[in-house]
Amino acid sequence: MKFSRLLLLAMASLVFAGQAVAADKFKIGYLRVMDDAQAIAAYEGGLYKKHGLDVELVEFKSGTDLIKAIVGGQMDTGVLGFTNAVAWASKGADLKVVGGAQHGYHAIVAREDTGIKDVAGLKGHTLASQAEGSTADTVLRGVVLKNAGLKADDVNVMGVSPQVAVQSLVGKRVDAAFLFEPQARIAQLIAPVRQIYEIGEVWPFPCMVVITSGETLKKRRNDVWKSLDAQREAIDLLQKQPAEASRLIAGYFISEPTLKTLKHGNMPREDIIRDAIKSQTFSAVLTDKEQARMQEIANILQEQGSLKTRDGKPFDVKTLTDLSWQKERKL
Question: What is the pTM assigned to this prediction?
């Protein structure tokens, strides 16, 4: 009996020790899109370690799944769409937007055989986009289609992943797609499509942001700040050395060393991702102008009926942001 008790105590100690070690891991969630390149580059480039963090990078299929993991405490931070945080915060979740990531660059590409030449030409056609309620979907319906004089039901919008959207274009299951990079670039290389619109040139907005929970910010504030420092350094790499950044992250987007294209033969994946990086604008800082645009997006969500506050008043984005990091770093 004495031996059994000692054994149980020893086993319990090992379990608790294992939990302590696991707790030291800083878990960052990401989506496999160029908008999250800073998180991937910081990991592959050893920048988290440089700033004293032992990071576990975890891929999620959707922003909805990632925000649930942050709310549930399974993830410490995540790089994902702003609307996910708004939706949960409006229901009482303790969430904070603590930094920026990527400005909204999303292209609409249309199959050449459809004759679609502009956004208005999408009427009556099928368009692949992101899941309903996502940041991309919100902007598509509330800005892109609206500015073209289209109603939501004028276009058959299918919510799928960017990868499925590209394959749907190739298989002619959709007429057009609203895509992140690098999927927009890949689609134009492997399918007979042409770009008809780029929202980043018309209505720039902070698409992806860094989100954490109030609990994580309370318990691991310094670690959150370290992760932001690493991601800021990764953004510098993306902007100043896109070829080097591509070498680090290209395998996340294109599994084979080369991609067979329609017009250029086999292209090295690093070249494709390098060009995709160069087409983007990344920023670790959320400016006053970007915060105002975030408020516009929250207002659109309420107009669409996707966001409801308890008192019926407009959702105040300022209640969701904690920009102490960029203030402390004097950015």
Answer: 0.89
